[in-house]
Amino acid sequence: MVDFSIILAGFVDVFTPINLAFVVFGVVLGQFVGAVPGIGPVMAMAIAIPFTFGLDPLPAIAFLVGVNKGGLVGGAVPAVLMNTPGTPDAAATAMDGYPLAQQGKPLKATKMALFSSITGDTFSDIVLITVSAPLAILALKMGPVEVVALMVFAFSIISGLMGESLTKGVIAAALGLLFSFVGTDPEHFTPRLIFGYWDLFDGLALPSVAIGMLAISEILRRMSETRRGEGKGLLVADTGKPEDRRVSFAEYWACRFTLLRGATIGTILGALPGIGSTAAAFMSYAMTKAASKEPETFGKGNLHGIAATESANSAVVGANLIPLLTLGIPGSVTAALIISAFMIHGMQPGPLLFENQGRLVYGLFGAMIMANFINLWVGQAGLRLWVKVVSAPEAVIFASALLLCFVGVSMATNGLFGVTVMLIFAVFGLLMHSFGYSLVIFIIAFFLGPQFEKSLAQAIALLNGNLLNIYTSPVAVALLALSVMSVFWFLSKRSNTAADTTNLGVPDGETLDQKHP
Amino acid sequence: MRSRTDRLSGAFFLVFGLALFFLVIPEYVEDPQGGNLSPRTMPYVTAWVLAVCGGLLMLRPTNHAAPDAGFFLKAAAYVVVLGGSIYAMSLVGFLYVSPVLALIVMLMIGERRPLWLGVGVVLMPAAIWFLVTQLLERGLPG
């Protein structure tokens, strides 16, 4: 039974000055880092998580949500102005945003991106708030057998959808699981794969692994690719006409169906684990272009192109939290980072979250809605400032980010051992990325590994030691059947997807997943 | 044209998976009696998955091309600097090492402007020190 007093109390919690201040701070920081090519919200979130230790759960999570939402808005700025997306999600935005900026309308393009982003984001947040509680009630009916089957299904979907081949996806998932087994085994409490390092008795610390693989490895990659004297791209000037600096209501309203389509695509794809906002942006762009009466104007500065991509990639953010909050399964790297922040603050994502900490969950929903309004307000005021940010030197940004990672991981793991582990996983992440293995699959599997093993042990006990007794659970059988079907489907569709990727203008070696970093 | 990259990484995972199965797991994972799930079961499963998928990747590689050797050499140089700085931090602490680390990294990237070098060497470590020790009241690494 839904308790409206808890829902109201949760929403009211957000309106305390301290919580609002952290949402504002998160959005400002997110827009700032999103505007810097090379940092992006994922890296910013990874770095920021350890610094939220001293905060109460709601301001900490609200701050991180603000960083993420702000980052998606900020990511469009360098995409539009320099044809250099600050985030991979914004790559599709550059296809029409940059030509529009070249026509002397950079502010019009960035404002359309801002309005579209907030429209899509708000749409998916409303869906999240509406469906997550009923889904959680449904999820509560699942036992360990169904949980194991659900995780197998999630692994099959994530491995198939992310990365460039199913085989590589499975390898990345297996590696993530393998490293999650380091430490004490959940049933007998004996040490596993610690190689005499008793610091590993409690397992590999999530902040060390996540920050090493997502932040440091990305910084290493970017630094290794940077060539001395490399230009940052040409910033464009505007025409000076007022109508070229703003988006009129008529222009926004003309894009309403495009925005709705993008938001719907983003919400549906975001709710499915493993697809990601980059795929949503490109899919929405392709469908809008196909539905347009003037497809030839796309890629030449069409506002519908910007509206399609930004509404879709931002809609993924809210929808990503649906599997996370209802099932405890992170569907993307951003969700994996949010889940680690949840755990740091004593929250266990999953169906019981609504029962045990309902007020906090609705506080989070309130913070998400507030973050959207603040995103609009900060974006309106800050767009001119973020334009300056895109020209900040990478050397200072990367050096600063490295120092922050060192300090953050040291604080999270109580010493330099965690920092050393972080560096090892940074090297590992760099190699995985270079050889085409998805870091996102690795991180999600690393996170789910302990729960998977624990649920499997419980399931074996419930099935009297014989996994073949699984037929007693029709839900589990159905999920396992779906897993097998999805593997075959991905194998048969892989070649077609590769062809579609090429047609959509995605560079060689990149895929339509949220592969970055 | 299929690249050699996947064949190389596939061969690595084939050998790695087999080494895990036959050498590492028996040596470094205990096998206590009783219980529903042995501590070795899941590591064994993942080792087999790695070996089988590594073999499959050798047989059916994708078109993925790895970066050139120069990229890896540059990355290795940065890793050496970062590793050295972690060791130095264990000896003298973050406060003394961080400006030197920032300077080396910025010079390696190619930054030569004194103002920006000053920002990285002085302003950022000072800001981090203030944030961590004064505002958050936590210790710096080292």
Question: What is this entry, summarized?
Answer:
The complex is a heterodimer of chains A (517) and B (142). Chain A has 517 residues and is mainly α. Chain A has 20 helices and two strands.
Structure write-up:
The complex is a heterodimer of chains A (517) and B (142). With 517 residues, chain A is mainly alpha-helical. Chain A has one domain (4-226, 237-503). Chain A is 71% helix and 1% strand. Chain A has 20 helices and 2 strands. Chain A has helices at 4-13, 17-35, 40-48, 57-82, 91-102, 106-139, 144-161, 166-180, 206-225, 249-254, 256-271, 277-291, 303-327, 333-344, 352-356, 358-389, 394-413, 416-434, 439-462, 474-503, and strands at residues 183-184, 191-192. Chain A has a two-stranded antiparallel ribbon with strand order 1-2. In chain A, strand 1 and strand 2 form a beta hairpin. In chain A, helix 1 (4-13) packs parallel to helix 16 (358-389) and helix 4 (57-82) packs parallel to helix 16. With 142 residues, chain B is an all-alpha fold. Chain B has 2 domains: 4-59; 69-135, no CATH class. In chain B, 75% of the residues lie in helices and 0% in strands. In chain B, helix 1 (4-28) packs antiparallel against helix 2. The mean pLDDT of chain B is 92. Chains A and B meet through helix 8, strand 2, helix 9, helix 17 and helix 18 of A and helix 1, helix 2, helix 3, helix 4 and helix 5 of B. Chain A: InterPro entries: DUF112_TM. Chain A: Residues 20-443 form the DUF112 domain. Chain A: This is Putative tricarboxylic transport membrane protein.
